[in-house]
Amino acid sequence: MSKQIKPTQYILESVESGKQFEDQGWTLDAPNECTLIRAIYPKKQIEVKDDSYGVFRFADWLPVQKMLDGSSAPVTYKSEGLAKCLGLSNLYITFSGYWPEKGANFRTCSFKETEAYSVGGRLNLDGETVLVVASAGNTARAFARVCSDNNIPLLLCVPEDNIDALWFDEPIKDNVRLIVTKSGSDYFDAIHLSNIACQLDGFIPEGGAKNVARRDGMATTTLSAVTHIGQIPDYYFQAVGSGTGAIAAWEANKRLIEDGRFGKNFMKLMVSQNVPFLPIHDAWKANSRPLLPLDDDVARKQVEEIDAKVLSNRKPPYSVTGGLFDAMTEAGGDVLVATNEEAKEAARVFEEVEGNDIHPAAAVATATLINAVKEGLVQKDDCIMLNITGGGEQRFKHEKEIVYLKPSHVFDIDPSVQSVKTVLDKLF
């Protein structure tokens, strides 16, 4: 019999005004404000449950009504191999992926599972309403697995060029459907398609960075690290596409300061992007809250060139109140970059000295840590958290029989509302 948890008590708060209000069930915005909202938990000191609860071991700080089956929590351990290689005495790796020996059993090999379980746990629907998720790959795989296993109706919108990311160890049930934007499109085009779907009756947006459950699900990486280490680290390294994971880390950091047992410092957010696609990097370096103008065709070409396709968000929640600009301004840190070649070398080194393969995005983060050590940005005894957001995929595919989710329909880059409605009427 599966374990259960009580619904978590929380209220929502506008980051901009501080006004507090009740969650109406799927509240994504503050009334009459353009800002992110946050979940405020009455329990100020987190009590972590045992490993058998999976990601819901952190349920005190997850805005969830129920516990879904099948989750795994991020695992933090003190690095020996990479730490020795880099001459670091306090390097901790938080790993979300497939590494059974470490206790990490993410069936989609990505930390996006933490989001999917938390969002699914917040959801309290009638079984008729369809959740809509746009993704460049890993998020779609995670939501497909979690929603299939827990019978949650789901519509995925993904660029056709990214559907090789939709691999699974068991077939996905028919309550999950995939539609795609044609080859040559990117994540932004998939978001546009999902927005059209959400105009139709019976479809609701998952919400992305605006969904408190998504951010607090991602924040479990930081909760894993801090509760394992016993203190808030000095530095946090992670590759970013939207930056939502870094926002989540900052928000968790604020809760942990309030907890009072782990220190009063902010982790410096050392976030990274894959050359040449650098919208967050370019805005941060220009000290600009607004993102800098970027031509759509130029952006698509840059996205084609990067190996870490999941880092290809053209409209990240950077400028919005409570977004990445505010997180980095308060916490400190920098936006670093890595080339495809540097990331490949970092992945090779990680596998050699730590013993597992890692995703391209995690390799970008690892590459920037290697460079930061060389450049003296971090010191030998600094407490560093390296967020490995995906790994073990090569091993997982070697050990399992893999199947792929096929698209139900391929759309043009800018489809009409009627064409989308006609397709979805047949699918659901």
Any key phrases for this structure?
428 residues, alpha/beta, Rossmann fold, five-stranded parallel β-sheet, 18 strands, 34% helix, 17% strand
Brief characterization of the structure:
The chain has helices at residues 81-86, 112-122, 138-149, 187-197, 212-218, 220-229, 244-259, 279-285, 296-305, 324-331, 340-354, 360-374, 393-399, 417-427; strands at residues 11-14, 20-21, 37-40, 75-78, 91-95, 98-99, 104-105, 130-134, 154-159, 167-168, 176-181, 203-205, 235-239, 268-274, 333-338, 384-388, 403-404, 409-411. The protein is an alpha/beta fold. Helix 7 links the parallel strand 13 and strand 14 (268-274).
What does this structure look like?
The chain is α/β, with parallel strands linked by helices and 428 residues long. It is 34% helix and 17% strand. A six-stranded mixed beta sheet has the order 4-5-16-13-14-15, sandwiched between helices. The radius of gyration is 20 Å and the shape is globular. The two termini are 31 Å apart. The mean pLDDT is 96.
CA radius of gyration is 20 Å
Strand order of the largest sheet: 4-5-16-13-14-15
Please give the largest β-sheet. 6 strands, mixed
Number of strands: 18
- Provide the helix percentage: 25-40%
CATH class of the domain at 75-109 and 214-397: Alpha Beta
Structural class: alpha/beta
Give the overall average pLDDT: 96
- Total helices: the number is 14
Q: Identify the CATH architecture of the domain at 75-109 and 214-397.
A: 3-Layer(aba) Sandwich
Which spans have pLDDT < 50 for at least 5 consecutive residues? none
Task: Report the span from N to C terminus.
Answer: 31 Å
CATH topology of the domain at 75-109 and 214-397: Rossmann fold
Strand content: 15-25%
Can you tell me the overall shape?
Answer: globular
